[in-house]
Amino acid sequence: MESSRALARLWRLTGPTGLTQARAMLLGRPCWSQQQTQQQHNSFSSSSSSVPEESDEEKKMPDHMMSTIVNGKEVWVPKGSSVMQACDAAGVDIPRFCYHPKLSVAGNCRMCLVDLENERGMSPKPVASCAMPLAPGTTILTDTDRVKKAREGVMEFLLLNHPLDCPICDQGGECDLQDQAMHYGSDRGRFVGQKRTVVDKNLGPLVKTVMTRCIHCTRCVRYAKEVAGVEDLGVTGRGGASEIGTYVNKLMESELSGNVIDLCPVGALTSKPYAFTARQWELKPTESVDVSDALGCNIRVDSRGTEVLRILPRNNEEVNEDWISDKARFQYDGLQRQRLNVPMAKGAGSVLKPVKWEEALTAVAEAAEGVSGEDMAAYGGKLADCESLIALKDLANRLGCETVQCEDVGQGVPDADLRSTYLFNPTLSGVDAADVILMVGTNPRVEAPVLNARIRKAQLEGVPIGMLGEDVDLTYPTTHLGGAPPLSAKKNADFSLALDQARRPLVLVGANCDPAVMAEVEELFEKRRETIEDGWNPISVLHQSASTVGALDLGYGAAPKAVPEGKKLVFLLGADEIDVPEGAFVVYIGHHGDKGACRADVVLPAAAFTEKHATYVNTEGRPQHARRAIAPPGEARDDWKILRALSEVMGHALPYDDLRGVRSRLCEVSPTFERIDEAPQKATYLGPKHKKGKVGAKTVLRTTIENFYQTDVISRASLAMAKATQARANQ
Amino acid sequence: MALWRETGKAGLALCARLAARSGLRASVASSQQHQQRDFVKLPDLSQAANAIGTFLDGKVMEAKYIHPYMFKQAEFVGEDYNGNKYYEIKKGVLYGRHRWFVPPDIFEYSPASVPPEWHGWLHNINNDAPSRVKFIEPSYKTEATTYKYLGYQPKGSYRKKLEFGRKRNWKKYQAWTPPSA
User: Fold this and answer.
1) Which InterPro entries does the record match to this protein (chain B) (predicted)?
2) Within 10 Å of residue B108's Cβ, how many Cβ atoms?
């Protein structure tokens, strides 16, 4: 383990080449490397099942495991596994269309047929392995002639009504049916009738349907019902006349609707904005992190040349499982509109004119001359990455300015001295472990839809969910406990009983809650401290933007709605929602022309999150790296590089000039940044940290997000998001 | 084509070499002249190269000389609105080579310039040349757009550039313009 950590560190320091060299060095030493690779292999295989080593006969099978034989190879799987899971554990490929590990088992595609054998002999007919529980003493055979013939038969039936339009289908090249037809499909069809055709359904501006291609795996239906929590999709009709669709002509009203595109094994559900744009083999995938909300969902940015063509989720069980929100998936077209591509400075007539970089930087330096540090202010924006935030803070501090704040921090975190006061302490995967969930002044459906799906999963398992604040539809039933604290137990006896008995309660606090509300919440748990499990901290703050936790870690404070009067020089690092009074010289460093750029005296074009190597810390305090997929447009540069250049011109040069330098500076400021991709250790609940105050009796706590689809500069510039907004309004 | 038939491959190659050498000489001479006297107009070498290419290709020979003059019995059938002239030989040639057209400009022509009424006759679909039999337009006829490049041309097409006189815009993003004060 220690060496794998060392490798990870090497990766961070030297990048892929260094790692390759290191690996070559390791492999050069046979006495050590074998053991090493074995260890690595074990640490990477995260599944609970394992293949027993033949040499190790003394190893005893744990009680919760059972053993089976797949094609003559023994595997151990947890009891209650299905036959398909045993095959997966043995590394045997089973073709499938309807089975998905995150959804319930339907067993209706019949592609995963296998033969079973026990002491009474062979199974009378092949069995659908996804829906078959594994019984003790069963042997699984997947390579018999009967299985092959059965799968070929199933494939032939599936292809009867499937159109032969692969050349014009968006799924072509990444289609499960196409791939599996290579193995099990015939070279000719025996069907001479007329193929079935189905009318396309309108699922809104994001998901395109070509329903003739549908093979009725019902993954989308199960997803909508089980994960997204909208009962909009279903199957109508029977037999050959069955169709998937919305029962009446309506949109799929979910913030997670885009995931059906990934789920669909054929080209029936595809992305509307991506339609006919590219083939999968033309694209360059880049592993990155989403910035549309504070969860830091893991994404894959697919780009071709200088364009981002689509964004797909990357599996990370601890953060986003397999899903991302529609905003994360479809806002990428905003990266091509309203871009700042040249430095600009105000010339005669106070109109912004394109200038050279030197002129722009000198203009800032001239404006800063004679301005004392107290008259300056620096504000971080919603999408600011940690590298640029630290560069801005270092520059501001060197100029003597202490007003270094970040917008969208929320009043709930007035001081950031204790990290556990502003984090999602139980971690996102901790939602699965919670036994009671209480929401205070938040609407996770719009603030973090992927988290909402996780809470919904908990609710389906029977976890009681209480809501304090505006009574909104979260796609699952909640117990409404009033618009604002105090939380009276009398309002709902069942819920307060559950809260009293809870060992792992989770209180989801909206970031914009009043400190007084936070104090009330803390008091609630102060009374129940004995019942709470050791090491469990119920306070989980749900932030709204990607920069917030990083900014708090680096010592930023909460920005006011408007810059105070008297500031003469204001730096806006992508901060668009702060009003700047007249008389201040505004330097805007950002990638989109929005409110901030309109107000600016000097505009310095920077890179968006797909265009730079950046670090973002998500709401649970997990730092993750976004990687550069494409180059910034025109003369735009990385944000921290702009600030580094500016510091040189202003005569206060920052002590780092490469990415490694900035990142080591980050580690200096906060040790969080040493452990990339790791959530912090669970912090024990230390008791109340907020000052008590008066909560207005009539205030109703609610989220500040008005429109889920348009929350930051990228999504505001996006055409797809505008269309989605319009469609939702017209619904 | 005649050259090919008479002298074979070797002759054609020789001819090409000769043409290339003469072209080279011409270009050297013209550049010297250009240095001395500016008022002499430079011959367009690309056009000359084109002409040589077309000549060797056999298109000129075939269109200008072989078809109209070698077969004296060729009959002029008619002319269409694009200026294409249509000829026919009834006897003595291989079937399939007995109807042809000569475009007005042999350097820049397109088979798409043959209008529908002549197309049927030219490709032996019917024997009714519109100059002899009145062509009845079908009810579903629409304006021909393929010729003159008025029809659909894909993004970035060379033809599109020719037609509208502008290149494809390769910029993949839209820049922000500051509001005027």
Assistant:
1) NDUFA12
2) 8
Task: Say if residue A486 is preceded by a cis peptide, omega within 30 of 0.
Answer: yes
Closest residue in A to B178 (Cα–Cα):
A352
Domain span at residue A202 reads 186-271
Contacts of A242 (CB under 8 A, 6+ apart): A216, A235, A236
**Going along A148-255, which residue ranges are E strands?**
207-209, 233-236, 243-246
Does residue A15 lie within any of the structural domains?
yes
Whether the CB of A348 is below 8 Å from some CB of chain B: the reply is no
Closest CB to A341 among B175, B179, B180: B175
Examine the domain organization and report whether A245 and A387 are in the same domain: no
Residues A134 and A215 in one domain: no
Say if A340 is an interface residue toward chain B (CB within 8 Å): yes
Nearest residue to A244 via CA among A106, A131, A143: A106
- Measured in angstroms, the CA of B161 and the nearest CA of chain A are apart by 22
pLDDT tens per residue across span B14-30: 444 544 444 444 444 44
Q: Based on the fold, state whether residues A120 and A220 are members of the same structural domain.
A: no
ipTM of the modeled complex: 0.79
Quick: pLDDT tens for A692-705: 777 666 677 888 89
Instruction: Quote the Cα angle for B41-B42-B44, to 5°.
Output: 125
For tokens 């017209």, the residue is: A730
A152/A190 same-domain check? no
Per-residue model confidence as pLDDT tens digits over A212-257 = 999 999 999 999 999 999 988 999 999 889 999 988 878 888 999 9
Each residue's pLDDT tens digit, A104-141? 999 999 999 999 999 999 999 999 999 999 999 999 99
| A591 min Cα distance to partner chain B (Å) | 10
Q: State the pLDDT at residue B33.
A: 45
Per-residue confidence at A45, pLDDT binned at 50, 70, 90?
very low
Contact of A363 with A626, CB cutoff 8 Å: no
CB A586 within 8 A of CB A572: yes
Both structure tokens of A145: 């002639």
List of E strands, A126-253: 127-128, 139-141, 207-209, 233-236, 243-246
Residues of B in contact with A350 (CB under 8 A): 181
Q: Which residues of B touch A351 (CB under 8 A)?
A: 178, 180-181
Q: What is the largest CA-CA distance in chain B?
A: 81
For residue A302, the model assigns a pLDDT of: 97
- B174 to chain A, closest Cα gap in Å: 5
